[in-house]
């Protein structure tokens, strides 16, 4: 393999592919570098148990094709040491040399390579119809804080992109709270994205999304010069029927208010009484207040301006309430079903249900 290419483009592709490597496994901690000399395209592939990232860039004419595995940090360090706009990569007897035709006297030699045959089998790309990825990614970012962090429950440590009833919604739950974001997208199939895949795709600016026609379903996200495909969970990992737990009963009280005001008051409760893990939401015909729990010292109370119907006093987990409000802007509708019943925060494009209010006021 021998090629000339733009140094920064190669660094960017290497960083992208390297984001999906796994340092715990010898072959997976390497990036596979493949050059198709006829097409003039260099492809870098990183793989781990969660998924596979492919990044491509063009090379200058006259390249000689080949494939090998390289440790990404080593190659990145060499590229930075060489500097310049254009770099040359030359493979000789299982070693890689890096230099620049425009900069004399600077070269890195002897970078160890592994045979490309040691790389894990390549993953197929999802075969579904492409749809804009932006709305789905916004949904994933909005609800991912509500996914479980328990590795023993991988189906809950996931975001479920649900297209089962005609619309598309990103859903996450940890059993105690539920986040649902209404995505302005039309997927034909649902897909469960496990925690490792969420960690990758939530940071991406993808252009298109495809969902596979196979079971279990998996997704391929694509952007300019790259694709990421996740490894699906087994068919035994089913996301729960989340619609059955969404609060639907007649509310005891509702509060329409500014999300920032409510979030600030809940944060002040936590700041004043650092030991508290709950906030009291007290809605009456006269006023709505957010307070520290009873017997908490020091105590704090803040009145929330807004439109009120009904009356109820309930205790909500402070972090779950603030996580929900962090994804909202402008006015929100807070629905309180009862003292010990679920609560719901609705911003219009998303809603968040607190399924397990705090016991004991």
Question: Overview of this structure, please?
Answer:
With 361 residues, the protein is α+β, with helices and mostly antiparallel strands. 17% of the residues lie in helices and 39% in strands. The protein has 6 helices and 25 strands. It has helices at 7-18, 72-82, 134-143, 195-201, 259-272, 318-326, and strands at residues 2-6, 31-36, 41-47, 51-58, 66-70, 86-92, 95-100, 103-114, 131-132, 158-162, 168-173, 177-183, 191-194, 208-211, 219-223, 226-230, 253-258, 278-283, 288-291, 301-304, 306-310, 312-317, 331-336, 343-346, 350-354. The strands form 3 sheets. Strands 1-6-7-8-5-2-3-4-16-15-14-9 form a 12-stranded antiparallel beta sheet, with helices on one face. Strands 13-10-11-12-25-24-23-17-21 form a 9-stranded antiparallel beta sheet. A 4-stranded antiparallel beta sheet has the order 20-19-18-22. Strand 24 (343-346) and strand 25 form a beta hairpin. Helix 5 (259-272) packs antiparallel against helix 6. The N and C termini lie far apart (70 Å).
User: What is the distance, rounded to the nearest whole angstrom, between the alpha carbons of the first and last residues?
Assistant: 70 Å
Q: Strand tally, please?
A: 25
Level of helix content? 10-25%
Broad structural category: alpha+beta
**Count of runs of 4 or more consecutive helical residues:** 6
* Share of residues in strands: 35-45%
Largest sheet: 12 strands, antiparallel
Outline the low-pLDDT stretches: none
- For the largest sheet, list the strands in their spatial order: 1-6-7-8-5-2-3-4-16-15-14-9
Overall spatial form: elongated
The overall pLDDT, averaged over residues, is: 92
Rg over alpha carbons: 26 Å
């Amino acid at each position: 393999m021998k090629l000339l290419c733009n140094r920064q483009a190669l660094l960017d592709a290497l960083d992208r592919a390297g984001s999906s490597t796994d340092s715990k496994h010898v072959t997976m901690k390497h990036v596979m570098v493949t050059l198709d000399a006829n097409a003039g395209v260099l492809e870098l592939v990183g793989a781990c148990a969660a998924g596979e990232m492919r990044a491509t860039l063009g090379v200058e004419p006259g390249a000689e094709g080949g494939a090998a595995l390289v440790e990404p940090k080593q190659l990145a360090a060499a590229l930075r040491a060489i500097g310049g706009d254009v770099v040359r990569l030359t493979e000789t007897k299982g070693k890689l040399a890096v230099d620049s035709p425009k900069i004399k006297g600077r070269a890195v030699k002897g970078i160890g390579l592994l045979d490309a045959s040691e790389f894990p089998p390549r993953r197929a790309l999802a075969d579904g119809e492409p749809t804009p990825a932006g709305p789905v990614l916004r949904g994933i970012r909005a609800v991912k804080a509500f996914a479980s962090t328990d590795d023993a429950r991988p189906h809950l440590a996931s975001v479920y992109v649900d297209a089962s009833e005609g619309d598309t919604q990103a859903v996450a739950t940890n059993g105690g709270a539920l986040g649902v974001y209404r995505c302005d997208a039309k997927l034909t199939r649902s897909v469960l994205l496990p925690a490792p895949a969420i960690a990758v795709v939530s940071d991406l600016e993808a252009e298109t999304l495809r969902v596979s026609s196979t079971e279990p379903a998996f997704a391929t996200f694509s952007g300019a010069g790259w694709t990421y495909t996740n490894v699906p969970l087994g068919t035994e990992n089913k996301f729960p029927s989340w619609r059955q737990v969404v609060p639907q009963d007649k509310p005891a009280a509702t509060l329409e208010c500014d999300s920032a005001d409510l979030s600030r008051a809940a944060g002040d409760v936590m700041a004043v009484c650092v030991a508290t893990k709950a906030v009291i939401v007290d809605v009456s015909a006269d006023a709505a207040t957010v307070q520290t729990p009873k017997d908490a010292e020091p105590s704090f109370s803040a009145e929330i301006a807004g439109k009120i119907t009904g009356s109820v006093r309930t205790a909500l987990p402070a972090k779950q309430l603030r996580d929900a409000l962090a994804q909202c802007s402008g006015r929100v509708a807070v629905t309180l079903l009862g003292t010990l019943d679920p609560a719901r925060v609705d911003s219009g494009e998303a809603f968040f249900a607190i399924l397990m209010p705090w016991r004991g006021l």
